Amino acid sequence: MMKLAVGELIQGYRISRFLGRGGFSSVFQAEHEETGAKVALKVGGMSGGGRQVTRLLEVSARRTPDGISPDELPAEAVFFDHAGARIDLFDEAEVDAMLECEAGLLEASDSPNLVSLQECLMVDDRPVLVLDFVRGKTLREKARGLEGIHLNWFLSIVRTLIGLREDGTMDYHGDLKPENIIIKPSGKIVLIDPAMRSSSQSVVTTTPHYNPLLYTDSKADVMAIGIMIYEILTGTLPFDDVPWKYAGSNSGGETLRLSLSYFYSYCPPQMLNPKTPQDLEQMIYRCITVPSYGLEELKADLEGFIGKA
Fold first, then answer.
1. Model confidence pLDDT, tens digit, residues 21-41
2. Residue 241 to residues 85, 212, 237, 244, 257: CA-CA distances in angstroms?
3. C-alpha distances in angstroms, 293 versus 162, 286, 307?
4. Range in 1-10, 21-30, 86-95, 183-192 the model is least confident about
5. Which of 27, 153, 176, 269 is 20 to 30 A away from residue 141, measured at CA?
């Protein structure tokens, strides 16, 4: 990681505190020396991948460059080749390419529910993203603190994703998870950290627990939302062994279909939480297992369920 410290001045931005880290980068709060405006500086590591990130010993909201809380799930680098998908580490150049991809996605997008890019600096020949500083808590922090979780947040996410796709600026987020959803004090949601994607689709960044089939379209977001609702209802994730063995495979056959059927045999939410509404359980099932169930169908079901509540 680029060695930054509180008090350091980076091209007119004074670092004030460490905000957090993920699989590939770290984020610092900073203030513009002239205007006093608060921003978030995102800097890449020397290499990246969630499996190399040190875990703290106990679940904690503490933010430190040394590691992450055990309940957090950083993204992985997933490479696709003739043998299928494999999880590996990014080197420094690949981390930089990921940040430049994110900068391009954010620069092209315009939504109040997606974090904005102010500029992309070059520091020691490496990109540093200057992002809006978003006050609030992540969905992970809300769930960890046993605060109330609102389905309206997920409806807002779906509407945001549909809007971005219709604008032609971002077809899908690709790495939706509780760490990448910030809820502001007003209740408004802001999405951060869209997944890297390449024109050849040879590499993506995603979090397999929320995208176990390694989708590279909007179904990745639908599946992630279903898994997040499942997790909030049950306190656990539906799948332990991820990604699916044949994720990203274009070949067909009975072996793949049987394997997928076995993979989909997760414990129904009502068995873990008997208070789970039947309609919500069906919504989760469709999100996870029905390929044709997309953002528009999920939007309609969420609106219907919330309207009846």
1. 999 999 999 999 999 999 999
2. 14, 9, 10, 7, 17
3. 14, 6, 20
4. 1-10
5. 269
- Per-residue pLDDT of 204-244, as tens digits, reads 999 999 999 999 999 999 999 999 999 999 999 999 999 99
Q: 102 and 115 in contact (C-beta within 8 Å)?
A: no
How far apart (Å, rounded) are the C-alpha atoms in residues 40 and 28?
A: 6
295-308 and 218-234 helices, crossing angle to 10°: 30
What is the reported pLDDT for 103? 97
Domain locations in the chain as residue ranges: 9-308
**CATH domain 9-308 topology:** Transferase(Phosphotransferase); domain 1 (1.10.510)
Percentage above 70 pLDDT, the chain: 98
Q: What pLDDT score was predicted for residue 2?
A: 61
